[in-house]
Write a structure and sequence with these properties.
245 residues; 2 domains; 6-stranded mixed β-sheet; 9 helices; 6 strands; 45% helix
Length: 245
């Protein structure tokens, strides 16, 4: 049975001009994950990542730390099918005024709990996106995003050896969507699960290899082994090392 490890990227630069850039803490989270993989005796046959900068930076920091333990460098491939949805566009279609950073600051300042208030607005934005009633407003409607993520999962599993271990560096929305598919969850569960995923946490899937059967549905071929594992951060005993954005 194959094993597929979905790794959420390390902490990005939320609130800065370039979100798609790991913070110093994000790089450290990825490095600690690589050390943890090494200490657990984890070895990978393939490394796959989305083509966003935060995916690449997480993969580089994690695998560099792992290679210090194993002495082995594993080739990496890029699959944009594992990219995140466009969270900026999704929010702006719901709250166009948020295109102005000052408007966001005023909104946060006027809220008793700015972080919670922003989260509620994003949930409304996600509901609008997922409803299917406004698909023409988005470059990538919800169903198109979902199908893209599932297709990427199938590509990774296709042709894999019977006992291959594959690690994929990706984003929270992608991981939540794949968990929804594997477990048959509701659309609403996707953004609820996404909020709970920790930066650099690992979700593990088990799959049956279907070599040469590209495009098959994966319902009966893949299952969830564990979800949102961030033991590598918990063992540090530092609450500020555990982040969600």
């Amino acid at each position: 049975m194959g094993q597929l490890f979905l790794v959420r990227h390390g902490q990005a630069s939320f609130g800065s001009a370039d979100y798609d850039q790991l913070s110093p803490l994000g790089i450290e989270q990825a490095r600690i994950l690589g050390e943890w993989f090494g200490e657990c005796g984890q070895r990978f046959d393939r490394v796959v990542m989305g083509d966003l900068k935060r995916h690449r930076q997480t993969a580089e920091a994690c695998m560099a730390a792992l290679s210090q333990v194993t002495g082995k460098v594993v080739d990496r491939s890029v699959d944009a099918g594992f990219n995140e949805y466009d969270h900026d566009q999704i929010m702006l279609r719901h709250r166009p005024e948020f295109a102005d950073p000052d408007a966001v600051k005023r909104f946060l300042a006027a809220s008793e709990n700015g972080k919670r208030a922003f989260q509620l607005e994003f949930e409304k934005a996600m509901t609008r996106w997922m409803s299917g009633q406004h698909d023409a407003d988005y470059r990538e409607p919800w169903q198109a995003f979902r199908e893209r993520c599932i297709a990427a999962l199938v590509r990774v599993m296709d042709g894999a050896g019977a006992s291959q271990k594959i690690v994929v560096f990706t984003s929270g929305g992608t991981i939540s969507t794949l968990c929804q598919y594997v477990m048959g969850l509701s659309d609403q569960s996707v953004y609820q699960l996404n909020w709970s995923l920790v930066n650099s946490a690992v979700t593990k899937l088990l799959f049956q290899s279907n070599q040469g059967k590209s495009g098959q549905r994966v319902d009966s071929q893949v299952s969830l082994n564990y979800l949102n594992n961030f033991a590598h951060l918990e063992r540090l005993g530092k609450g500020d090392s555990i982040t969600y954005r």
